Amino acid sequence: MNKDLRIVFVLFPRITQLDFTGPHEVLWRAPDARCVLASSAGGRIQADGGLAFDTVPIADVDGCELLLVPGGYGTLDAMADAHLLAQMRRLAAGARHVVSVCTGSLLLGAAGLLRGHRAACHWAWRELLAAYPEVTPDAARIVHDGRVWSGGGVTAGIDVALAVLADVAGAEYAQSVQLAIEYAPAPPFDAGRPESAPAGVRQRMQQRLQAMGADRRAAVQRAAAALAAAG
Predict the structure, then answer these.
(1) Helix (H) or strand (E) run with residue 35 in it
(2) Is domain 5-230 annotated with CATH 3.40.50.150?
(3) How many whole angstroms separate alpha carbon 133 and alpha carbon 110?
(4) Are 22 and 29 spatial neighbours (Cβ–Cβ below 8 Å)?
(5) With 50 as the cut, is the pLDDT of residue 69 above it?
(6) Domain ranges of the chain
(7) CA-to-CA distance for 109 and 131, rounded, in angstroms?
(8) Model pTM?
(9) Which is it for the CA torsion 175, 178, 184, 189, positive or negative?
(10) How far is CA 122 from each of CA 18, 20, 172, 194, rounded to the nearest angstrom?
(11) CA pair distance 195, 175, nearest whole angstrom
């Protein structure tokens, strides 16, 4: 087990709170865990849905063993925050585990932290990862490639956090945490993936998401171009 497991959650305005709070509920239980909520400038960060979280300036965090980046509607603005991206690179340089949930992988990609890796993302935006140099989109719910771990959309954050916890503290310990939080998903519908959702549900959701597609593609292309220009 790791001693003094420093875990930094990178937050930004309009995060999807479950991308962060799901993994937090798992990882704060790791042996000797010390969780820090950090953002670009510090202060209170408002998530989608109305919840708010107090954070410290990410530049004030001296290091971590585990860096976790959630996603959300604010990902696009975060991808354009050069200070945030630079601080993520700094912290990732000394981290043993670099983790993303949902569209947090787009933010890892913008920081250049996915180069040479496979990564998961929300199903609607997964293929955007291919715009980044040497990044391979992966449709799995949990993707582990070297020190990089990524989860698919939103609820996959709990799954990837349990997988990371098993790597940190052992499978039996991770299973004890799973039992403690009674994580035994049994949803009333088999509609959590586009492959299994009813056609009408899938089509309506794709239509809703299509309105955001152009902005997201443009943001990823800008971030990819900036990476290419930086070498």
Answers:
(1) strand 33-39
(2) no
(3) 10
(4) no
(5) yes
(6) 5-230
(7) 9
(8) 0.96
(9) negative
(10) 13, 14, 29, 11
(11) 29
